[in-house]
């Protein structure tokens, strides 16, 4: 893929690859086993400038665009698909939501601190009624004195080291119902992180339920229009789906590379394992699928950078690359035999991370519903922003 990248993108990719191989890979199994990411990893990503890659220069980032962001996420996911998923939320989804919805003052308040890693952000939409079933969501914003009051609770909020939360509540103005987006700070009275879940995959990301009990929301903590803030940041969701797809791609590439080494070294029936034609045939098919996914991903990312993306392509990448990565990881794991099932080899986390990625940031079925709506020219049940 190198020939598509300019010199700046190649330089950032090399920095990300070096970080992934030398610093992240040695602790990736520990992140998975302990369900926690060491603070120094977050600080190191800040030093390397990763959090500001998709933030404009005027707000403290480097404004390098989505292709560059995806290149970095792909490299990092080869070592730790779990950490790459968290990085995608904090590098793309949250800052871009602020960028799309925010006033210049809100951007100046939030984005420089996000770019520097000083105050990373989290994104919170999902509720027990289902992520896209927003008419049944219970978290509500109610007018109160000189602002609003936020009450309710959300599920599965991936936080890492976040201190600022972008929360989607039900809203009302002049008797009209809506669904908006507000800013909540970790220090706000009435805000509570309830617990961190233990997960099958995508571990070490501090994902869990959060609650709001009479949290004061000032008028300048409402992002975008009170009634349509959620729907209006669909472009941020599309960019984020591609970031997430990049982490699925890096996930299958990481396991592919480890498996190639394994089949070259492992002796079966007195010969290297690669002499078995079912193995080489399967490896060739997986290699081809990886290349196809990469072409699809970077074609879509380039369209976003150029402002020409056809809306369901973000969903198509998220669903197709996510499903393909899981299918390929399952086949690659099989080549390890019993060793792949044992945690000590550190390879089954790729399979588990690929599986979690089929649900996180919109399940495959939800994305298929979005794509089908676009293909059929039908709107009404789902919008592309209903999938986080
Ligand atoms: C590791 C992880 C991290 C996450 N982090 C965050 C986060 O940071 N912020 C956040 O807000 N959420 C987060 N989520 C939530 C995630 O986005 C949702 O779990 C996911 O979108 C699925 O939604 P749901 O759980 O509400 O499933 P449900 O909507 O309850 O779906 C149940 C089943 O029905 C299917 N289904 C739902 N709608 C349709 C449809 N229209 N057509 C066909 N089938 C359908 C689903 O695919 C699924 O199989 C995270 C989830 C995970 C697993």
From TrEMBL:
Residue ranges of domain Acyl-CoA oxidase/dehydrogenase middle in the record: 123-215
Keyword Flavoprotein: yes
InterPro entries hit by this protein: Acyl-CoA_Oxase/DH_mid-dom, Acyl-CoA_Oxase/DH_mid-dom_sf, AcylCo_DH-like_C, AcylCo_DH/oxidase_C, AcylCoA_DH/ox_N, AcylCoA_DH/ox_N_sf, AcylCoA_DH/oxidase_NM_dom_sf
Keyword annotations of the record: FAD, Flavoprotein, Oxidoreductase
Residue span(s) of domain Acyl-CoA dehydrogenase/oxidase N-terminal: 7-118
Domain Acyl-CoA dehydrogenase/oxidase C-terminal: 243-375
Cofactor entry: FAD
UniProt cross-references to Pfam families, sorted A to Z: Acyl-CoA_dh_1, Acyl-CoA_dh_M, Acyl-CoA_dh_N
Source organism, top-level taxon: Bacteria
Gene Ontology molecular function terms on file: acyl-CoA dehydrogenase activity; flavin adenine dinucleotide binding
Family to which this protein belongs: Belongs to the acyl-CoA dehydrogenase family.
Protein's recorded name: Acyl-CoA dehydrogenase
Upper lineage: Bacteria, Pseudomonadati, Pseudomonadota, Alphaproteobacteria, Sphingomonadales
């Amino acid at each position: 893929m190198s020939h598509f990248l300019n010199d700046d993108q190649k330089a950032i990719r090399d920095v990300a690859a070096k970080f992934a191989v030398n610093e992240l890979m040695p602790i990736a199994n520990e992140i998975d086993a302990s369900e926690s990411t060491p603070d120094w990893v977050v600080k190191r990503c800040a030093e390397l400038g990763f959090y500001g890659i998709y933030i404009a220069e005027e707000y403290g980032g480097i404004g390098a665009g989505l292709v560059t962001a995806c290149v970095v996420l792909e490299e990092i996911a080869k070592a730790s698909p779990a950490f790459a998923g968290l990085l995608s939320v904090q590098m793309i989804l949250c800052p871009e939501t602020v960028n799309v919805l925010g006033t210049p003052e809100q951007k100046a308040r939030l984005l420089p601190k996000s770019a520097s890693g000083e105050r990373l952000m989290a994104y919170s939409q999902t509720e027990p009624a289902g992520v896209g079933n927003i008419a049944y969501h219970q978290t509500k914003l109610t007018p109160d004195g000189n602002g609003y009051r936020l009450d309710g609770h959300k599920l599965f909020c991936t936080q890492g080291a976040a201190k600022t939360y972008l929360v989607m509540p039900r809203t009302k103005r002049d008797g009209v119902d809506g669904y908006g987006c507000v800013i909540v700070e970790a220090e706000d009275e009435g805000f509570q992180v309830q617990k961190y879940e233990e997960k099958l995959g995508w571990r070490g990301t501090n994902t869990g339920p959060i609650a709001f009990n009479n949290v004061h929301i000032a008028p300048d903590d409402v992002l975008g229009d009170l009634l349509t803030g959620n729907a209006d940041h669909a472009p941020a969701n599309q960019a984020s789906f591609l970031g997430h797809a990049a982490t699925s791609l890096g996930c299958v590439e990481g396991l592919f590379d480890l498996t190639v080494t394994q089949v070259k070294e492992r002796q079966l029936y007195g010969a290297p394992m690669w002499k078995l034609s079912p193995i080489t045939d399967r490896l060739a098919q997986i290699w081809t699928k990886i290349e196809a996914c990469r072409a699809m991903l970077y074609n879509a990312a380039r369209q976003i950078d150029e402002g020409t993306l056809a809306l369901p392509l973000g969903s198509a990448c998220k669903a197709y690359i996510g499903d393909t990565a899981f299918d390929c990881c399952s086949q690659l794991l099989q080549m390890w035999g019993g060793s792949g099932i044992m945690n000590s080899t550190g390879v089954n986390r790729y399979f588990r991370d690929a599986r979690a990625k089929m649900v996180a940031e919109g399940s495959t079925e939800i994305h298929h519903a979005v794509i089908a709506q676009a293909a059929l020219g039908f709107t009404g049940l789902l919008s592309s922003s209903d999938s986080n």
